[in-house]
Fold this protein.
Amino acid sequence: MSAPGRIFAITSKELKQLYRDRPSFIMVAGIPLFMIILFGYAINLDVRNLSAAVANQSGSELSYQLVDELQASQIVHITRNVQDELELVKLLDTGKIKVGIFIPADFERRITDKSRNAVQIMIDGSDPSITRVARNITNLSFSAHTGQAVSQVGFFATRVYYNPESRSAMFIVPAVSGVILQLTMVLFTAIAIVRERERGNMEMLISTPIKRYELMIGKILPFIIIGLIQASIIFLTGFLLFDVYVQGTLLDLYTAALLFISAVLALGLLISTIAKNQFQAMQMTLFTLLPSIFLSGYMFPFDGMPQTAQWIGRMLPLTHYIALIRGIVLRGVAIRELPDHIHALMGFFVVFLLIAILRFKKQLD
Amino acid sequence: MVSNPAILAKGLTHKFGKLVAVNHVSLQIETGEIYGFLGPNGSGKSTTIRLLCGLLHALEGQVEVLGYNMPQDADKIRGQLGYMTQKFSLYEDLTVRENLDFLARVYSIRGKLRSTRILRALEKYQIADRQKQFVGTLSGGQKQRLALAAVTLHEPRLLLLDEPTSSVDPQSRREFWADLFELAAQGTTILVSTHYMDEAERCHRLAILDHGNLVAEGPPQTLIDDIDAIVIRVDTDRPAVAQKCLQQLNWIRSIAQLGKRLHVLVDKTATAPVQAILAELQQHRIDAKVTVAIASLEDVFVAATGYRKG
Ligand SMILES: Nc1ncnc2c1ncn2[C@@H]1O[C@H](COP(=O)(O)OP(=O)(O)O)[C@@H](O)[C@H]1O
Ligand SMILES: [Mg+2]
């Protein structure tokens, strides 16, 4: 009956302390803003405009059309014309180009001969992601090779769903929102309790009638508000700077954010019941963040990961949040159509919170 | 209820690893009395207080507080306890008023009562003019008055104060004790730990702790009257030399120098100790006046804890 009052006491105290801790308070807005801008600009998964050189020994009209077509695809950016294969290899060797395009003198005759390649694409394979992208060119040249007129290359054009412009910002910003929220939310709560213990406030607090769950919930509530503010900053910045627009509804977006924020806050509380000091809390935060980054589908496509990695990935809240948020932002799915991920996040929240409450003892030993 | 002791502990024992911090301590604290724990650092005062208010679970022994078993029933009586930790434990980044407001809410003091209680506490402990000041910037004495204001806000029946005056000036200490007497007069039971003799002397009853053992207990005056030693006063111009020479005598329990005076404790069973000491000093050509003195609480403390030869 007096629980709401005590929870309110903790929550408002927590907010006051955060507001007065200027560096931390600035971080509330600073971290998401800084990280989203950094990620949005610096991490560009659209590998485009690979520097390329052409050795066109054919010189036919058709071969020039092919070169124009390649240039127009934006996959390569043709910077040089050279004489022969050897020169292309040399440019590849010295790293001046990533892709070499060799059009032999008998290009037109080869097109009609199905047993021979019309064009040779030479790829710098040191970066696999470049290889992957550059292989798309082979699709283009293959169409020429099958004897279709070059103007008909478009016949084989691939169609891209959901992110038609293949812009990585659309893909990255939602996922980055999860990484940022996990980092700040876990850290805030993990430290919120450890700090009281370090400063000696905890001994006073546990001698009062406050109940364990009141303390835990009182500690979580302020950061739910903070988390939603951060999510807003992230998506607003994503929209203003990177044109990331949400296909689904904002209500779904905030629901997903709320579910995830609750789960990671509970994780933070759990950490705070284990960590002895702020440094340990920080370490454990990173310890939980790193697998989240690597195994959640944020870094590598989830479906491409080995089974074990996927299994671990499913044990991480971030995995489910990314699945939800990408569905909402990219495909405009209604959140209720992804019940598994909703349930997973709710499950994490309940389990983490229960363990934290059970682990937290109102005693010193 | 009234006849119940406020605190009843039997055979209380607690260990940290191999270290026995509290060793079979039994005590009974009556309602409305000021009970003191006197002991040097590390004697187990804080540990005992934590055991009594349920923050530590005893390895052995029973504790009953306000008629309830600790630590099992701790939650039932938290609202009637006020525990002031040895280390200042209010929030330094909140203001005086905010701290009091926080605690009032935690103790479920509601509505109008909350603000009247807070205002009264601010007035009573002379911190009304500091309401908006951050607690971290208060002086030692102000902090300590605030701590007392905070711990009494919910009008607890039992106060446990762990070395409340260890970081304040003598004037503040006097005022603090005046406040304690007032609270006791209103019926509050107070357990207070200290390592100051003058504070210990003000308690209604006293327990002397040493290495986790309760080595003496009773009203201060009784402890002084019943001291298990003879106190001999030696006045001399050369106290240091005198002390050195008396240290050779193995029947002397302890010697403390106080200015030009030595306090010598000897066993009650010693035969004619005054003459023996005088003879020893004369042998070393030291001029001295040797008399039997009235014991002080410090002598009781020294006799009880066995700290030998000053
Ligand atoms: N948490 C702890 N862990 C290990 N040893 C402790 C702990 N708390 C106290 N001690 C030890 O127990 C003994 C009693 O300490 P304490 O009760 O704090 O004494 P006092 O309050 O009289 O100074 C000391 O030797 C102290 O070092
Ligand atoms: Mg202590």
Q: What stands out?
A: The two ends of chain A are 29 Å apart (CA to CA). DSSP finds 14 helices and four strands in chain A. The first helix of chain A runs from residue 3 to 20.
